[in-house]
Design the sequence.
C-alpha cells in the first residue's frame, strides 16, 4: 500500500463487467501495464498483452494466471508483440493485428521509457521520442479504423488511453514540434550536456507533453465529424502518480528508498488508466472526459498551458504525420 492510499476509484471493486470487450495494453509485462491488463481480464475482457517479445508476454500471462487462478483456461489473455522503438516494426505488427482481430474497444498506450541517453535511432529519430511518442502514434492511427468499426457496434464504448506524466509541466520554455529537428532536439544548447540528469529529464518531460497533445488533438479530430462513428470514441491522457515500477527505480536510483516510501503500488498506479478505460462515469460524463488529462485515481487535472495549446497540438500532429510517413515510405509501407 503506497502512502497515498486514499482513493476515489479502486480497481479491485469499481470495474464493471467487460465481457465481450477487447483491449490492447502496450508495455503490459510489468508495472502499471501488467496490472491494467490483469484487471481488465479479471472483469471479463479479452486482453492483448503488449510485449517486446513473445517469451516475455507469455511469462507475464503465466504470472497473472498464477496470481489469479480464475484466469486459467478462460482464453482472455493473449500476447501481441510490438517493438514501439521501431516505427516500421510497429506498423507491420499493427497491420497484422488488424488481420487477426474483429474489434477493439480499449487501447491503452502505456509502454514508454524513462529518462534516456540521447540517441538518434536507425530510423533517424531520437530513440526515446520514438518509444514514448511516435511508436504509439503509428499504433493508434493504424488501429483507428478498427476502433471506429467497434464504435459503430450496438452498446459500444471505445476509449483510447495515453499514459503521460506530471513531468510534462516541467517544460517552461516554449516547446517546438514543427520539424524533425525539433523532435530530435537534445533540449540543451551544448550537445555535450545532453545526457546530464536535468536534460535527460527535460527530454522525458517533452515526450510526456507530446502524449497530452496527441490525446487532445486525436479527440479534436474524432469529434470533427459528428456523423462518423469515431466521434463517440473518448481519448484521454493521464498522470498515474509516482508509481513503484522498475522504470521509476531506474530513473531515481539514487533515492530509491524515498521513492519506495512515497510512491504508489503498481495496483494503485493502474487505478487511473483503469478508470479511464473502464469507468461508466467516463461515458456518462463524456463531454467532461473527451480529451481530458487525469491524475491518480481518475481525478480530472488541469495540464500545463502548453498542453492546452490547440495550435501546438495541431503542429505536433502534422509534423509527426510527416516524419512517420517519410520513415514508412522508405520502408515501402
Sequence:
Amino acid at each position: 500500500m503506497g502512502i497515498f492510499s486514499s482513493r476515489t476509484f479502486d480497481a479491485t471493486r469499481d470495474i464493471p463487467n467487460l465481457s465481450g470487450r477487447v483491449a490492447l495494453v502496450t508495455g503490459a509485462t510489468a508495472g502499471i501495464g501488467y496490472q491494467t491488463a490483469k484487471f481488465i481480464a479479471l472483469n471479463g475482457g479479452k486482453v492483448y498483452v503488449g510485449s517486446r517479445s513473445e517469451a516475455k508476454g507469455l511469462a507475464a500471462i503465466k504470472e497473472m494466471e498464477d496470481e489469479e487462478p480464475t484466469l486459467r483456461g478462460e482464453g482472455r489473455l493473449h500476447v501481441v508483440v510490438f517493438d514501439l522503438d521501431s516505427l516500421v516494426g510497429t506498423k507491420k505488427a499493427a497491420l497484422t493485428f488488424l488481420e487477426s482481430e474483429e474489434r477493439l474497444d480499449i487501447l491503452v498506450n502505456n509502454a514508454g521509457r524513462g529518462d534516456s541517453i540521447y540517441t538518434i535511432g536507425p530510423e533517424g529519430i531520437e530513440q526515446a521520442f520514438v518509444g514514448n511518442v511516435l511508436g504509439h502514434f503509428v499504433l493508434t492511427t493504424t488501429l483507428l479504423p478498427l476502433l471506429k468499426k467497434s464504435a459503430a457496434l450496438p452498446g459500444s464504448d471505445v476509449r483510447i488511453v495515453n499514459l503521460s506524466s506530471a513531468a510534462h509541466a516541467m517544460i517552461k520554455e516554449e516547446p517546438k514540434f514543427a520539424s524533425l529537428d525539433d523532435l530530435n532536439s537534445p533540449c540543451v544548447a551544448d550537445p555535450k550536456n545532453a545526457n546530464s540528469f536535468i536534460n535527460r529529464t527535460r527530454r522525458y518531460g517533452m515526450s510526456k507533453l507530446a502524449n497530452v497533445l496527441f490525446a487532445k488533438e486525436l479527440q479534436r479530430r474524432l469529434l470533427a465529424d459528428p456523423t462518423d462513428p469515431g466521434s463517440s470514441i473518448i481519448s484521454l491522457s493521464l498522470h498515474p502518480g509516482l508509481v513503484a515500477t522498475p522504470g521509476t527505480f531506474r530513473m531515481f536510483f539514487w533515492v530509491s528508498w524515498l521513492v519506495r516510501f512515497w510512491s504508489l503500488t503498481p495496483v494503485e498506479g493502474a487505478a487511473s488508466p483503469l478508470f479511464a478505460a473502464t469507468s461508466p462515469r467516463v461515458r456518462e460524463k463524456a463531454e467532461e472526459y473527451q480529451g481530458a488529462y487525469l491524475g491518480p485515481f481518475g481525478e480530472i487535472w488541469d495540464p500545463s498551458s502548453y498542453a492546452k495549446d490547440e495550435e501546438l497540438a495541431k503542429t505536433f500532429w502534422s509534423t509527426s504525420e510527416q516524419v512517420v510517413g517519410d520513415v514508412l515510405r522508405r520502408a515501402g509501407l
User: Anything to note?
Assistant: The first strand starts at residue 22 and ends at 25. Confidence is low (pLDDT under 50) at residues 1-6.
